[in-house]
Target: Large ribosomal subunit protein bL25
Amino acid sequence: MSDQLTLSAETRDRAGKGASRAMRREGRVPAVIYGNKQEALSIHVEEKALVKMLSTGHFMNSVIMVDGVAGAAIRTIPKDVHFHPVTDRPMHVDFLRISEHATVTVSVPVVFVDQEESKGIKRGGVLNIVQHEVDLVCDASEIPGEITISLAGVEVGDSIHISNVTLPNGVTPAITDRDFTIATMAAPTIPNAEDEAADEALAAEQSAAAEAEAAAEKED
Model:
């Protein structure tokens, strides 16, 4: 199960771009808590604490207890984080208010294990990962931290679909209209005669250019 994290917050009284910029200069990140048939709550959180949580890699599929704004911690899950396009700093966070056993949809990372037992990898095959994360529907108190997929016995040409994955009890895929692919084991890329000839021609061209440059430097 994913972790339950606690994030301290303060109520945000001022709105608008100017107020948000001022908060960011003070090391705060504007945020909003909405949902569960209650009024949206504007808050701000400490940027350092938020960045630390983001660095865990499990922030988006963790229950976040937002504390310090309503007399008691508010149970939420993150729905979106807006980042600065240049600095990559978090600019705004959206939290969805949930009850303890609410049914939620979360993106859970996929982890592949048992590579040493894969016949395809032993033969030089390449694992092409189609889905690095899988959207799952589950109880908010039972969110998986990750989905583990064994590569034992996987051969070149095999595909791993969601139907091949054993999910925890009570957890189902969010996509139900097709048996989507998570990864494939592709054949190794073997260079042919044309590839080798092209490599040789490129090497010769680079060598000639280097010799010409060296000769020019001597003349100077």
In short: The longest strand covers residues 103-113. The chain is about 20% helix and 40% strand. Residues 15 and 42 are 8 Å apart (CA to CA). Residues 193-219 form the longest helix (27 residues).
